[in-house]
Amino acid sequence: xxxxxLLTTPALAVLLSTALSASAPGASFDAAxxxxxxxxxxxARAGRAFGATELNALLRAFCARGSVAEARALFxxxxxxxxxxxxxxxxxxxxxxxxxxxxxLDLFYLDAVLRGFVPDAVSYCVRMDAYCxxxxxxxxxxxxxxxxxxGDCKPTLQVFTxxxxxAGIVRSAARARHLFDEMxxxxxxxxRGAHNALMGAYVRGRDLQxxxxxxxxxxxxxxxxx
Length: 226
Hints:
70% helix, mainly alpha, 12 helices
């Protein structure tokens, strides 16, 4: 009440983390709900906005612990009171990806689209990474084609780098090289990470000569080797 400017999202994140850490096993969900609802009342009394940003902090706290099922339940509990934004959906998509639940990620994504969610480049990249780590490289490539067809969501450096890594996982150096070369068509400049991903694809394919050539290209372009 005396320092309302200190009621910020990072402050809420600390409160939620403390509540989750201090709660007994199995009681973290109720502890987080109690903390979140109390914070909403405090923020309101201080005249501070409380909405999607704060909801995202709650979801991140659970996703960071790998409790994505609880995070999804909290989303459904609060989405009407605090209308979600793009970051809300991406937070949950990332949570499912990090937990290795590709099928649950797909189901949540479809549900989100039905709710009016419009995916951005981050959304696509998270799904691509989830597919690539499961060896579903062709499914990830289909998402790139979907981005092309939309026209309003251009592939980013992170998107291409993720797909190049994915091509390496399935040992398709030719696909990795094609994706790398395609970046320029989209006005995307490959950085060290993209070069490393291509180099890794060649190494996985046991083509050391081509991998060394990539390193030589990096030196000629003035890209530092790590």
